[in-house]
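hey so u asked for the seq, here:
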Amino acid sequence: MPPLTENTPRDHQIGEKEDYPVAAAVRVFEGAAVGENAAGYSRPLVALDKFQGFAEEEADNTSGLAGAINVRVKTKGRIVLAVATSAITSNDRPAVYASDDGTFTLVSTANTKIGYVSRWISGTNCVVEYDARGV
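ran it, structure tokens below
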């Protein structure tokens, strides 16, 4: 392309958010961990799905075909989660896994890696650092 000779507005994408097409007949709730199914569509995360991030808002495609709507996902950040089996030793940055869209653990077996404990708060509450593109 030749050098610009006039103002050229660009369509910028938000760096840590993405819109993904939703699988048929599913509902993704706000705050859900989102996974990618074998066909490449988003859904509430199921163990061993590819992690895409956390839903910023509800995406109800219960009556739609695959890809009829998108879900807005935050792909990178820090989030407070209840992480089973976490304790003060979680300040050592152990990996965090999800077995579904709302269940988080330090147990890797048959689960999806979503990030690392950034800071233990109390009980099972932790700040989890996640980057869907990096796990």
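The chain has two domains: 17-74, 76-131. The chain has a mean pLDDT of 94.
lmk if thats what u needed
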